[in-house]
Amino acid sequence: MPAAVAALQTAGYRRHVKDTRPVELQADREGEIQRAGAQPGQGLVELHYGVFAGEWLHRTAAVDSAGVAGRAEPVTVAGRRAATLPPEDAVIQLAVHLAVNPHIPSWAGLETEIGEIKGKEGLSTPDEALYLIQGLNAHGIAADWIALNNGTTHGIEASDAGIQVDLTAEIHKVLEPYHVSGAQHGTSGNNSDRLREIAARTHTTKANVATALQMISWGLEVNDYGNAQLDADGGFIKVEGEGCLLYTSPSPRDS
């Protein structure tokens, strides 16, 4: 793993870690390390600690990692020593993944995402979205939705910058031949006028509104952007008789 990370670092790939998936946890559960490319077209590379990766597999099967490693066959890739699975383990790996497919209900849709919400790489572009969808299609995978980094966030917006409607419409237009709908992440923090514009001008058919709904379910006073209103002391304002939880309005810094 260190050698692979070093090689990608030399090629310009940077560390890409999600707070909910720390490197230590990934190593313990034979998960993955992600590296993000700095150049157009490089995309995201996943380095897996184990051949049979994934929490779901560890919960449902016993994986003989030492046995798999012991049977690995040496190869040379780009002048570097590496290892590949012998035919029998390669067949097992493929069979494990194929065995899961029949258990995925036909009504379950596939959502993919290009870019990272609040990411440092900037907003998604039409070329990036097209590259992703065409690449998936080339391998027989047809996504039902695509989520974009189009100016929104997960959670409440600090301002009304929000969703970039023109950019979203442009990307959706490019993807029309592939019959992919838009999945809008982070609608909380965008006012109702902008959400109506997204609905009218883009191919968005799915929207995430968890944060605003959370505020409303708690019975907090919110503005048209879905942001909770604060009192003079910096605490949340509870609407009398509203909400499903008993709420004492602490300062948001204490929550």
Describe the SSE topology.
Blueprint: H1 2-10, E1 13-16, H2 23-28, E2 32-37, E3 44-48, H3 55-60, H4 65-71, E4 73-77, E5 80-84, H5 87-100, E6 111-114, H6 126-138, E7 145-148, H7 165-174, E8 181-184, H8 192-201, E9 204-207, H9 210-217
Parallel strand pairs: 6-7, 7-8, 8-9
Antiparallel strand pairs: 1-2, 2-3, 4-5
Structure description:
The model is unreliable at 154-159 and 246-255 (pLDDT under 50). The radius of gyration is 23 Å and the shape is globular. The chain has 255 residues and is α/β, with parallel strands linked by helices. Helices cover 33% and strands 16% of the residues. It starts with a helix and ends in a 38-residue tail after the last helix. A 4-stranded parallel beta sheet has the order 6-7-8-9, covered by helices on one side. It has a 3-stranded antiparallel beta sheet with strand order 1-2-3. A two-stranded antiparallel ribbon has the order 4-5. The protein has helices at residues 2-10, 23-28, 55-60, 65-71, 87-100, 126-138, 165-174, 192-201, 210-217; strands at 13-16, 32-37, 44-48, 73-77, 80-84, 111-114, 145-148, 181-184, 204-207. It has 2 domains: 2-103, no CATH class; 111-254, TIM Barrel (Alpha-Beta Barrel), CATH 3.20.20.
CATH classification, class level of the largest domain: Alpha Beta
Shape: globular
Helix content: 25-40%
Major β-sheet annotation:
4 strands, parallel
Mean pLDDT: 76
Key terms:
single chain, alpha/beta, TIM Barrel, 4-stranded parallel β-sheet, 9 helices, 16% strand, globular, disordered C terminus
Write a compact overview of the structure shown:
By secondary structure, the protein is α/β, with parallel strands linked by helices. The protein is about 35% helix and about 15% strand.
